[in-house]
């Protein structure tokens, strides 16, 4: 997967991962992909809902060593 930007939101508590994700995705062109790394367990439901409501597509999410990773395609 071609990622255009990686956002490190590890160690941040809600709502900061969403705030930082919103800022980062605004810097991308439509169709580009943002990879987000977070450690806040609430980020999974928050980012899923945020992507959907914002017209973006959550392509994939995984968890490795307590780090949640998300790939969001800008809508």
UniProtKB/TrEMBL annotation:
<keyword id="KW-0808">Transferase</keyword>
<comment type="similarity">
    <text>Belongs to the sulfur carrier protein TusA family.</text>
</comment>
<feature type="domain" description="UPF0033">
    <location>
        <begin position="7"/>
        <end position="31"/>
    </location>
</feature>
<dbReference type="Pfam" id="PF01206">
    <property type="entry name" value="TusA"/>
</dbReference>
<dbReference type="GO" id="GO:0016740">
    <property type="term" value="F:transferase activity"/>
</dbReference>
<dbReference type="InterPro" id="IPR001455">
    <property type="entry name" value="TusA-like"/>
</dbReference>
<dbReference type="InterPro" id="IPR036868">
    <property type="entry name" value="TusA-like_sf"/>
</dbReference>
<protein>
    <submittedName>
        <fullName>TusA-related sulfurtransferase</fullName>
    </submittedName>
</protein>
């Amino acid at each position: 997967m071609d990622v255009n930007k990686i956002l490190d939101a590890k160690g941040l508590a809600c709502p900061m991962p969403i705030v930082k994700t919103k800022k980062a995705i605004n810097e991308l062109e439509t169709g580009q992909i943002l990879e987000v790394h977070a450690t806040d367990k609430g980020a999974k439901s928050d980012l899923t809902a945020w992507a959907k409501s914002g017209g973006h597509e959550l392509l994939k999410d995984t968890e490795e060593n307590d780090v949640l990773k998300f790939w969001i395609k800008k809508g």
